[in-house]
Amino acid sequence: MDEISELPIDVQAKLLRVLQEREVVRVGDTRGIPVDVRIVSASNQNLQHMVLNRAFREDLYYRCNVIEIEIPPLRNRQIDIPLLAYHFLAKYSSLLNKSVYGISAQAMASLQTYSWPGNIRELENSMERAVNLCDHQEVDVTALSLFTPSVSVDETPIQLTDSPPISLEAAERAAIETAVRYTGFNLTQAAKILGISKPSVYAKVKKYGISLERRRSQA
Predict the structure, then answer these.
(1) Highest mean pLDDT: which of 13-27, 131-145, 176-190?
(2) Minimal CA–CA distance to 82: which of 61, 59, 105?
(3) What is the DSSP letter of 6?
(4) Virtual CA dihedral for 124, 200, 195, 52, nearest 10 degrees?
(5) CA 39, CA 22: separation in Å to the nearest integer?
(6) DSSP letters of 64-116?
(7) pLDDT tens, 78-133?
(8) What do you get for the CA distance between the two ends of the chain, in Å?
(9) N or C: which end of the chain has fewer CB within 10 A?
(10) Are 79 and 200 in contact (CB under 8 A)?
(11) Domains and CATH numbers, the chain
C-alpha cells in the first residue's frame, strides 16, 4: 500500500478492522471473509507527527509499524544511482522502441551530483524524458539537462568569469578533497557537508587517491 498516509480517516478505520479481525466484508454483504495476508505499506510523511496532529489513527499506526524499514533519500545513496538509471533506461528504451543502450560518463556524473529532491520517481521521470529526447545510442548531458538544482534564497549567486571551465571529475575531486581537509579528515562530517553518504565519500577518496593522513609540520 503506497502512501498510506493519504488514506482518509474513515478508510483508515476499515483497514484497521481488516488487520485486527483478519477478514474483509464485500460491499453490500454482511458476512466476513477470512483473509491471510501480509501488508507492506509505505509513506513519505512522518506518521508519528500525523498521529500527534490527529491526521492518522494512532491504533492503525501501531498495527502497521510492526517492522519499520527506513529508506534514505536518493541523494544519500549515490552508489545506487547507476543501477537505477540503467534499469529505467532499459525499461523506457523497450517501451518507446528506441535503441538507447548507454549513458555517457558526463551524463552519469550529472546524475550522481544532482540532489534528487523527488527521489527515485524524479530519476525515473528524468530517464524517460532523456530516452525520448535522445537521438543516439547513448544518453548524453544534452538529453539530461532538463533539471536545475534548487537554490535557497540565502545562497550567493555564482559569479561567472572568463576562466576556462574544468572537468566535472576535477571539480568533484576538488570538492571531496576540500571537504575532507576542512573537517580534519572526518569522513562522517565531510559526507554531511557534501550531501552524500560516508561510503560514497570513502569510495571517491580511494578513486582520486586523496591522502587521509595529516601532514606533519616541519620545524
Answers:
(1) 13-27
(2) 105
(3) G
(4) 70
(5) 11
(6) HTTS--PPPPGGG-GGGHHHHHHHHHHHHHHHTT----EE-HHHHHHHHHS--
(7) 888 999 999 999 999 989 888 888 888 888 888 888 888 888 888 999 999 888 88
(8) 66
(9) C
(10) yes
(11) 4-64 (no CATH), 74-144 (1.10.8.60), 168-208 (1.10.10)
